[in-house]
## 1
Amino acid sequence: MLRPALLAAALAAAFPAHADTELDTLRAELQELKAAYEARIQALESRLQQAESAATTEASLPSAPVPPTESRADTGSFNPDISLILQGRYAHLDDVEHRAISGFLPAGHDHGLPRGFSLDHTELVMSASVDPYFNGYFNLALVDEEVAIEEAWFQTTSLGHGASLKGGRFLSGLGYQNEQHPHAWDFADNNLMYRALFGEAYGNDGVQLKWVAPTELFIELGAEAGRGAGFPGTDRNANGAGSYAMFGHLGGDVGVSSSWRAGLSYLHAKADERDGELEDLNDVEAETLFSGKSKTWVADFVWKWAPDGNARERNFKLAGEYFRRSERGSLLCEDNLDQGGACDGTEDAYRSRQSGYYVQGVYQFMPRWRTGYRYDRLDPGSVDFGLNSASLAVTDYKPTRHSLMLDYSPSEFSRLRLQVSKDESMESVSENQWFVQYVHSLGAHGAHKF
Amino acid sequence: MKRLLASFLLWLPLGAHAALNVFACEPEWAALAREIGGDDVRVYAATTARQDPHRIEARPSLIAQMRRADLVVCTGAGLEAGWLPVLLREAGNARVQPGRPGYFEATRFVSLLEKPARLDRAEGDVHAAGNPHIHTDPRNLAKVGAALTTRLAEIDPQHAAAHRARGEAFDARWQAAIARWEARAVPLKGMPVAVQHPSFSYLIGWLGMVEVATLEPRPGVEPSVGHLAQVAARLQATPARAVLRAAYQSPRPADWLAARAGIPALALPYTVGGSARAGDLFGLFDDTLDQLLSAAR
């Protein structure tokens, strides 16, 4: 608005004296130009005002229709889905110096159970489509001074014919609970069976091929080969695979209210100087090294019920797993005579056949509230220490545990749990354990499997 | 086992069938697919009208059906976020992965209401893309039906003409039905209602009713007695003519409030199969309108 006026003023000032006709026409043209500019600017201003007022009314109406989005609706961007799991608990426990399941070689590193308040693993999970051909998934478990990549894998989405290939570090598809991270467990602690078999769960660096049959009955077959560094195997410096697993699952519905899944799995692992701490016949800590083969069979069964298949109000879940494990090889019991122990460094044949199971039922009796009971029982079976039976004790004690839990979930993303267990997994200890636990998930928490 | 696997793979093409397998996440899409696909499709409905589509277990039977599907018809907009991704991941079916022609999301073809201005889980189980219960407005079903007709013709070119013919026939009948329903629904205009969950926003918008209260304090959060008492107090100031709930939702909160406020609680079928009369899409709206009109009288 200002500029044409200035221009006109400047021009008028530039030609003050000669008021001839030419200048008059020029002035008239300039006046015209100025008027036109002003009209156009006014029109623009009014349009801007209109647009602004329209925008504010649209914003004040929350139910104004929005055009459908073409991107992935949930995330709306290329960023992976990120979620963080916060877990912590209060545990009321007896003061037990060394927790180990009687009659079983201890599985891997055991964090033990801290008494009082403590923080569980904090899990960071990211997942996304890599491209039209792959999905990627990443799960990081954080505890003090320790970061563990629990899972980091890709999975094909475009092979078709029911087949998919997974590669990287992943939790094995064997059994039922194995693929669940602790935040998805129905109880505050792991069952005895998985603790004895794998410590927490069997993870592997390798590849998994899975195939689903084109039938109405759910039939899934899978095979895995991998590094086999986790218990019951050991890490190795070699080409090829250190462990392999095979599993098959069947499943279906019974009517509209019930559904089930059952499976059978086999894990073969190699161990080379796998160490474990045992109490010897003199009740002194002895370090053992096992080298050999470990074979595990797992049978699993899950049954879920909800009235009309609507799990929102009430639902019930029954799950059970049974295992048999046989190990063959040699066991070295390191010399601990100095500490008053019974081992003198003998290495001899070792053979074991062990089994165990757990069954658990969880019932949601009203929205938000669930209660559950779990029974654990292990059978040390037959253990042959060979020459080492002179220094290591064989027991026929059967570890058991009863657990009762009650949990409350204000929403799908938060859960508070109270659990009481009568733990008799150690021959000399009968312990009442109390847990108060929270599990919260932040962010785009992915869907859970059946 | 390898030989077994190979033999299965070889045998697979022989097992291919004439009819297209359609996996419908919800009964309304199953009904729509049956209307348009006719005998050229075999439709599997993953859920029933008695089930909450937000909360479905990724059951093995659903994975098995997903494995065989040629076309997956779902709502999208996050409604199935708790189970559909697991089915897609576990089934190993490349045809129906998102982005492929075999994956059809109904909410892509209509405008969504109630897109939240603020995305925070403190607001409850909100859907980032907007309210996904689009099928309660029959005009949306017409749009989705047109898109589904195109899609069926695309992935089943052999029967494309038949799909188009059925799609057009359905659209004609559907538009006539909409005109009929709109004429009948004139008394419903401006009728104030309370809803249990924002399941009927599109229905309410279509019929020009007014939603004066929601029983859930936040979407997906069960109403407590204290909250219901507050809603009842609010209804004294701005009375509603009825409390609406979907057949799958618990009757307790709606019945409690209805008794308190002295108004009827309506268990609308919500989707196909939600009541004896809602045997198909036409019956669904006939029954819904009858119930609403009886409350308006």
## 2
Amino acid sequence: MEKINIIGAGLAGLSAAVTLAKGGRHCRLISLQPSERAQSVLAEGGINAALDVMGEGDKPEYHFEDTMRGGVYLADEEAVRRLTAGAPDTVRWLAELGVPFNMKEGRLIQRNFGGQKKKRTAYAKSSTGKMIMSALIDEARKYEVRGLIERFAHHSFLGCDIAEGVCRGAVVCDRYTGEQTAFAGRVIMCCGGLAGLFPRMTTGTTQNSGYAAARLFEQGVRFGNLEMLQYHPTTIGIPDKRCLVTEAARGEGGRLYIERGGEKWYFMEEKYPELKNLMPRDVVAREMYMVRRQEDCGGTVYLDMTGLSNEVWEKRLPDLRAEIRHYLAIDPADEPVPVKEGIHYFMGGIYTDVFHRTNIEGLYAAGECTCQYHGANRLGGNSMLGAVFGGKTAAEDILETTEREGEISLKEKLTENEPAEAVKVKLGEILYSGLGIVRSEKGLKEALDRLDTLEREAGVFPRTRLGRAMLESALARKESRGAHYREDFPEKDEALCKPTMAVCQNGSISVSIGETQL
Amino acid sequence: MTELRILRRKNAEDKPYWQSFSYTTDDPNAAVSTALTELNARTDLRDMGGEKAEPIQWECSCLQKKCGACAMVINGRPRLACDSKLAELGEKVTIEPLRKFPVVADLMVDRKAMFDTLQRLKVWAEEGVTISEGSQDDAFEAAGCLQCGCCLEVCPNFYVGGKFAGMAGGLPLARLIAQLDDSSKKEVLKAYRKGVYAGCGKSLACRDICPAGLDIESLMVNSNRAAAWKTLLKFRK
């Protein structure tokens, strides 16, 4: 009997596991820590689906158009079409599992989110990720007890067993005992984004170390659009990381301003009269970066939520208010909150087809570790959708195939090939210097030079290789598109409306644009 | 300067011992998690006596009190390391692992028993639920449980291996009690009666310790009402 190995127990992993189990197939759900600790619990604002419950005549077609436009047409069109068409059923399924979505007069309600012209984001106050996770965890438990899902909740991923282009299983290590095991069976990677490449600089979790992705890159798995990092416009600094202020704050009426000539300048409203503060995140983050550098402006951008009604604070954003009070000792109902752009999401990642198959047969990927849905910029509310829908899609593809036979054994003990913490931090600084909101050939080449030095001094590691591929991808895209803004190529180049592809073979990294064959 | 006095052991079999480290910061928001991260990032970690020390084993993930990973006993009280500001803890801070779970190493414990209990109590909806405005607030509150284990640490009635699940089991059940309609919650109410209601001494220590600040008392009152009402009905029949 084949057991599918799912690496990562966040939204994508749980969705894949539950789908497989419902279909009667066995899987192992392998994660560093239990699902309750996954980065998915941090997702706040909501999940998109054209449910058309707000009387605005919303349709999946409009959701598709907004997603493609928001991603500046770099996303996989067919994949986005499937995603947006499947979104209403995905959200209805989550509601049936008991996600306490906000409702009014007996019906689920939706809120505005950035880059979308309709109220399309279903939400549970501002803890939507936690609520979806709790419901999916309970659903998965049903199948755990029936033996269809087997949990390995303190195991790290050391690599896939790949022979002649076929993935035959995964090698994992029990963090509590140090024991290593090779598990036969196809693999679905649900290992999250690359936050771990930027220690303490992102809104992500420490559990999301980036090692699983880096290891796969070293093993020849193709990655796409690695230059596409999302800077969320509204984050606050807390001691160990950046902390997200949900986009829902602006969806519910929050306004961004900066001091100019002694007055509040609501720059987004002046520059973008249609969507105002709810322009896609790449646009808002770049505008914030630019206005902060204007000589006639103050150095801090504020998020003004003082105009929000009591009902909004009580029913829709009570958790956000509590969080800001806790960390900044400010009541956002009374005082504007100083905010800054922070790394929040990775649109780039493992390149897959619409069924979530990678270039290695038997290896799938879903969730933030993949790249097909969000193109050059992700819309708020599409990440949880991509994760739940992606995990389900990968599992459904497996359900349509026959089980694979075959055993594998642990030939030799593997080591987690990671550098010292100080080297990880240094690598993060180098990547951050090259992959900021505004980029240039000069800055990227300087970062690559510094990376050469770091590798000479500390050695070459999976994460330094993946970091190099990110910088090389940004260098290769000689245009500005979405989150990738090159001051030396400030315009979009339609000839480059194709994904960058990075691959590592025998330690040598190559990056190209447009070679999308797996 | 803060002295962090940490109860350490290499593994479950090893004898525990105290080791102190010094940590200085001018960040008023720096937490125990900040200090542990910084200590482990030192290339040459030494204790206050100048002895070389191994990195401190502990678990963390979100570092913003939303995942429950970094629960430990700080100055005698179970809490999240990321939610424990050093400035409020005094010059000497004692840090120990949670005491009701087996220690893996240093501050890392194996909380498997907590998740096993949820399996034993069959915490899931067999046929799904119908969400409603009436149940939304209770379901939202109950589903906010971090499964960190702090409530079990202070509970006078909970011990690993016992029948009583504690509120780490009670809250996920409370979500289902709030959301399932009467015809489909028989099993869930039974699990709550046996696994939670029967063993709870109502000390409410859990209410005061919950790092997520969940309204445990209100959820418990509502769940008790549903579970006890069913019992009463059974006797009358």
